[in-house]
Amino acid sequence: MPLPIVLAIALMLAGAGTLLRGSVIAGESLSQEEVVEGQEEFVPISELPPEDRLPAAPLLIAAYSFVWVVLLVYLWSIWRRLTKLEKELADFARTVSLKRAGPDG
Amino acid sequence: MSNRIFGLLLAASILLCVGAPLMIAWAPYESTMGLVQKIFYFHVPSWMIMFLSVFICGVASMFVIFRRSYRADRIALAAAELAVVFGLIGLVTGPLWARKAWGVWWQWDARLTSALVLWTIFIAYLLLRRYGGPGSERLSAAVALFGMANVPFVYWSVNVWRTVHPKTTVVPSLGPGMREAFWWCAGAFLCVYLLFLVLRIRLEEKRLELESLYLTSEDQYKNYG
Asked: Residue A5 pLDDT more than 80?
């Protein structure tokens, strides 16, 4: 392999390594700087404004329903496409057999 | 694939899918997120299956590029379509979880953005196959290889870059109750995936059979004609 290409690859790898290491160090130093402040008071959930009271159940039900809907719709789509193809194959076979039988047929 | 194996796969899928909600309900609540964390049991398996599908598509695409294998092309197309389906599940269930856990639907961080990019690569693959015309198989195979090369970046992004997304250490460190429910759901997703893959490959084979029949009959008419 020519030397300039080897050098270019080595430089690219070194650059990527530095970038990766830099981002890891930055992440670590940021997480060290984080200080969790102590709560000054406890607020009952009933005192929160309605927009901040987010129940988990509707989100869980929505996610679960979505999974079932997607899987069932995909299954239905495969079944529909298979049925259509099988019908076309049967039609084709019928047309060919009719043509083979000839016009007097 | 024989009908017996197909039947077994169907039975396993039904059994695991019916059992999954019970396993999820039985699993203990996570200490900080509570009920909404239970989305994890189908959000993570959907991405695991998406990655598996991308890998299958990528390997099959190598055979398409280097060996011009038609069988591999059928497998690659089926796997790409399923990668989009399971990716869609992951992309929708994630924000539903994030809304409660993080307070936002979406965050443009490394994991979420790279996962979205991976998904759009496979959308591009399908569009290329649909509208690319003759010869698009090899071009789309190259796109699939590009997509497969992205998977390690998506997977490791949570460990390398600063992100709000949970890290990859979450799954191996799952406690009793959570672990069983998670692997049960992963098994259910895997069975459903294999079932869909077999059906989708069968569909592609039928389509090619019809296409070759039309071409043969056209040639015959031209020869007699």
From this structure: no
pLDDT tens for residues B97-126? 999 898 899 999 899 999 999 999 999 999
Buried b (16+ CB within 10 A) or exposed e, B164-195: ebeeeeebeeeeeebeebbebbbbbbbbbbbb
- B12 falls within a domain: no
From B72, B71, B70, select the one nearest B62 (Cα to Cα).
B72
Q: How many domains does chain A have?
A: 1
pLDDT tens track for A66-92? 999 999 999 999 999 999 999 998 998
Nearest residue on chain B to A30, alpha-carbon basis: B162
- Cβ neighbours of B88 in A, within 8 Å: 70
Do A63 and B42 make contact, defined as CB atoms within 8 angstroms? yes
Q: Over range B160-181, report the average pLDDT.
A: 89
| pLDDT over 90 at B180, yes or no | yes
What string of DSSP letters covers B12-27? Answer: HHHHHHHHHHHHHHHS
* Residue B208 belongs to domain spanning: 18-29+39-219
Best mutation site among A59, A69, A77 for testing chain B: the one with the most B CBs within 10 Å?
A: A59
Least confidently predicted of B1-10, B48-57, B59-68, B202-211: B1-10
User: Which residues of chain B lie closer than 8 angstroms to A56, CB-CB?
Assistant: 34-36, 100
Residue A67 lies in domain: 56-99
Q: CB–CB of A59 and B100 under 8 A?
A: yes
| B59 conformational bin, left if phi > 0, alpha if psi -120 to 50, beta if neither | alpha
Domain assignment present for residue B59? The answer is: yes
